[in-house]
Design brief:
This protein is α/β, with parallel strands linked by helices and 486 residues long. The protein contains 15 helices and 20 strands. The chain has two domains: 149 residues, Leucine Aminopeptidase, subunit E, domain 1, CATH 3.40.220.10; 316 residues, Zn peptidases (Aminopeptidase, 3-Layer(aba) Sandwich). The longest helix is centred in the middle third of the chain and has 25 residues. The structure holds ligand BES and zinc ion (ZN) (2 copies).
């Protein structure tokens, strides 16, 4: 799909479908007379996501006019517009329309709104059906979307459009990686994807193989990997600004478990196929780095993505094993299904060694966070209020919902063992918090935020604005954090 920014004369514009955004009670001057009967009958209520299609509206050259209900006027912010634009494109795609124009004019024509709308439209085009062989599948795809802004709109809008395209494309790159089945996307394949992304956008990249990890002493990660025939890979992507405007060095760490069977502490068969998305955090970090390489913030950013497959087998790690992590801390494994925190422990230590001064990790880490927050918000944990504040304001801007969870010292008691420095699980209660507490032990006093996106990284049922499958969350928050850094 092609997305363009245009500055047309709206009434004379020839297009297959012209989308007008209308909040409740609003009537566009062009529509008030020709559609008066509809307004009077209350059929154009302006309710959020109400789409009404008209053919041949008097006074407009467009073949179809789509009135897109945008809800209460006061509530129409950039994240709401992103959803609305995406839903409108997906609605028209379902009708077989190939060429669409969305009018973003009047008070809506701001830079923040345009970036969000552009992002929404790019993201709307994506479908999780790459491996379907039916050539008919692409029949329902929109080929061109034009976003129409006022003729006199300034060049800040061109920059906003560019930003929206970059973020939308990065989200789709993340979703392309995360949607792959686990037989295709092995740790080696995930590393190859990261290398391809890096080469395309000019990031430096390095992949640590198993031998190198052994030399370094990444015993926590290697213990998880040892049960699989697929070797692990640790991806390092680096962005360095040409003219740094800020001190410090951001480190983004993403869980890359390409499939999580649970290992010897094996998971139930039902729903196990979903554990192919246990690398969604890593995929979000790779996509974020792609956007960062193109948007060029003033701060250095390093991404560390540990990739492994968690399998049972004669070589697999056992409950009772004690491993030595890269940090030197020993860990008693009580449940091999709590593998994410083990690979992240070594990745966090490694990111610190690479000089990162502020860390954010993202991981589909616990079922407990899904119980706590459902599919709406990601859980956020921290050892540093200042970094948390930056993360939360970046999230507010992105529309990716985050909820601050507790990390009190009491949770540490659950991880005590007499046999090693720490054990890898706590009790049944507060599982997302003990998992975060485990990671905190490796972040030590480096400012750190942990994001548990187990509930938000995958959409089980399509929404009007988003296809079923990977969501890319929290890619946009990562990008905003780097772009807003001072
Ligand atoms: N990858 C899972 C967490 C998960 C669960 C992600 C549901 C997405 C949806 C993680 O590795 C895991 O298995 N965690 C265990 C930890 C437990 C053994 C302490 C869990 O949450 O049950
Ligand atoms: Zn697990
Ligand atoms: Zn896992």
């Amino acid at each position: 799909m092609q997305v363009r920014l245009t500055r047309p004369e709206i009434s004379a514009l020839e297009t297959d479908a012209l989308i007008f955004v209308e909040t409740e009670g609003q009537k566009r001057p062009e529509l008030a007379t020709p559609l008066s009967a509809f307004y009077e009958a209350g059929e154009l209520s302006g309710k959020m996501l109400e789409f009404t299609v008209f053919h041949g509206v008097t006074g407009l050259a467009a073949r179809r006019v789509v009135v897109a209900g945008a809800g209460k006027p006061g509530k129409l912010d950039a994240p709401a517009l992103r959803k609305l634009a995406a839903a409108a494109v997906r609605f028209l795609k379902g009708k077989g329309v190939k060429e669409v124009t969305l009018a973003l004019d009047g008070p809506l024509a701001t830079a923040a709104n345009l970036a969000a709308v552009t992002e929404g439209v790019v993201v709307a085009a994506w479908e999780p059906d790459k491996l379907k062989t039916d050539p008919e599948k692409s029949k329902g795809s929109v080929e061109t979307v034009s976003i129409a802004i006022p003729a006199d709109a300034g060049s800040d809008l061109d920059a906003a459009f560019e930003r929206g395209c970059i973020i939308g494309e990065a989200l789709n790159v993340t979703r392309d990686i995360a949607v792959e089945p686990p037989n295709v996307l092995t740790p080696t394949a995930m590393a190859a994807r990261a290398v391809a992304v890096a080469n395309e956008c000019g990031l430096s990249v390095e992949v640590l193989n198993q031998d190198r990890m052994r030399q370094l002493g990444m015993g926590a990660l290697l213990g998880v990997a040892q049960g699989s025939a697929e070797p692990p890979a640790m991806i390092i992507l680096q962005y360095k600004p040409e003219n740094p405007t800020a001190e410090g060095h951001l480190g983004f760490v993403g869980k890359g478990v390409t499939f999580d069977t649970g290992g010897i502490s094996i998971k139930p068969a039902e729903g196990m196929e979903k554990m192919k998305y246990d690398m969604a955090g890593g995929a979000a970090v790779i996509g974020a780095m792609r956007a960062i390489a193109k948007l060029k913030p003033g701060i250095a950013v390093t991404a560390v993505v540990p990739c492994v497959e968690n399998m049972p087998g004669s070589k697999a790690q056992r409950p009772g094993d004690i491993v030595t992590s890269l940090s030197g801390k020993t860990i008693e494994i009580l449940n091999t299904d709590a593998e994410g925190r083990l690979i992240l422990a070594d990745a966090i230590t490694y990111a610190k060694r690479l000089g990162c001064t502020h860390l954010v990790d993202v991981a589909t880490l616990t079922g407990a966070i899904v119980v706590a927050l459902g599919p709406t918000s990601s859980g956020v944990f921290t050892n540093n209020e200042e970094l948390l504040g930056k993360w939360m304001s970046a999230a507010k801007e992105s529309g990716e919902k985050m909820w601050h969870m507790p990390l009190d010292d009491e949770y540490r008691d659950q991880l005590k063992t007499v046999y090693a420095d720490i054990q890898n699980i706590g009790t049944r209660w507060g599982g997302a918090c003990t998992a975060a507490m485990f990671l905190k032990e490796f972040a030590e006093d480096t400012p750190w935020v942990h994001v548990d996106n187990a509930g938000t990284a995958w959409l089980d049922d399509a929404k009007p604005f988003l296809a079923k499958g990977p969501t890319g969350i929290p890619l946009v928050t990562f990008v905003n954090l780097a772009m807003n850094w001072k």
